[in-house]
Amino acid sequence: MNLGADHSHQLEQLAAAAWPARQQQVMDGWLWREHGGYTKRANSAWLLDATDAAHPAALDRVEARYRALGLRPLFKLTEHTPQAVVQQLDARGYTCLDESLVMYRHWTQPATAHPAVQISPACSDAWLAATSRLLQLSDQGLQLASILQALPPSLYAWVTHGDEVIAVGLGVVQGDHIGFCDLITAPTHRRQGWARAIVDSLQAHAWQHGVRHGWLQVVADNQGARALYQQTGFHEGYRYVYRQAPQATQ
Q1: In a shared domain, residues 90 and 127
Q2: 83 CB contacts (<8 Å, ≥6 apart)?
Q3: Which of 15, 68, 121, 134 is deepest in the core (most CB within 10 A)?
Q4: Which segments constitute the N-acetyltransferase domain (predicted)?
């Protein structure tokens, strides 16, 4: 399943809303986003309208905005991005980072929720602490919290073993779509089916609220995660890559 440009653009809009930035502004066909450097998703420019986006002056303005904040300019390009944009960034010495897949699926019936998966519509301090620990965020936990506070209606899932949270997941509900984010299991409890249990449980819960479509993002070289999501019915919809500017010369 390869999604066309219009459907991919729709999912890109959902993805941007599902991971809000502290600041964002439309600039010459680009959605400029900034969140203090925490995550590439929230600190990159996303293509909205290709009409003027490849113009050198448009790229100059986006670059200048990032550099004024001490950030290296970063652009997010999908496989549908016009070649004129790619060529402009190539000419400026931009490198590629983290080729990733957006995987997508449609449901015709609810999944079966796993009894061990707990779900809440609110982000608790315990969920945030467990997610920060599993993601090894250290001092970036507050930045994650600021993103979570700005999310659309969401579902927070977790699994405990004894007194320890061993797996978490986030489902961002957007109309009839749900985006799955921060699906992570503690290393000592991987390959036990917890990621799938969380996806199924979130989908079963969201189904009751009219959700019929799901999407998620996964790094292309993470073969294990890709295989897991394919087993749950997800298929590759399209790919994207980040393009990062070279270090500024002194």
Answers
A1: no
A2: none
A3: 15
A4: 121-250
Do 15 and 66 belong to one domain? yes
Going from the first residue of the chain to its last (250 residues), give the mean pLDDT of each consecutive group of 10, the final group possibly shorter: 88 93 93 92 92 90 96 96 95 96 97 97 91 78 74 92 95 97 93 95 97 97 93 96 85
The answer to whether residue 227 is domain-embedded is: no
Do 86 and 139 sit in the same domain of this protein?
Answer: no
Cβ contacts of 199 within 8 Å, gap of 6 or more: 111, 169, 180, 183, 214, 229, 232
For 32, the domain range is 5-103+239-244
- Please indicate, yes or no, whether residues 64 and 126 belong to a single structural domain of this protein: no
* Torsion angle defined by CA atoms of residues 126, 131, 132 and 133, in that order, rounded to the nearest 10 degrees: 90
> Where residue 206 sits, what CATH number does that domain have?
3.40.630.30
Domain contains 20: yes
Q: How many domains does the chain have?
A: 2
